[in-house]
Amino acid sequence: MPFDFRNDRDRVGDARRTNYHAGLSAEQAVERHYRDQGAILRETRWRGRCGEIDLILSEGDTVVFVEVKKSRTHAQAVQRVTPRQLARILQSAEDYLGSCPNGSLTDARLDVALVDAQGVIDIIPNASLAL
Length: 131
Known about the structure:
By secondary structure, the protein is α+β, with helices and mostly antiparallel strands. It contains four helices and five strands; from the N terminus they run H-E-E-E-H-H-E-E-H. Strands 1-2-3-4-5 form a five-stranded mixed beta sheet.
């Protein structure tokens, strides 16, 4: 049979699973990177009203929200960060801060962690101001 649709769906499913696991692996590597710098993990894949935040950590009194982007190169990864996505993450971060003792007065920042195909991590601190 010239067209085997079942095999096409299987390949799409395989690609999704591969991407999912690559994303998890990148998130774990970024988490280790922050922990090696002394940060404490608060949450992984935390979901607010407007979307998911990959990692939430504490650096002293500062809450750090981290969006992880994995691609072949850091340049390709940063291109996948859209203003709309950053806005959704910031709205979810506001939800999270609402549960903190100081609420919206809590020191916080949003970092974007870029992971390339070799596993090299590049952090853009305060990404909402930098991008």
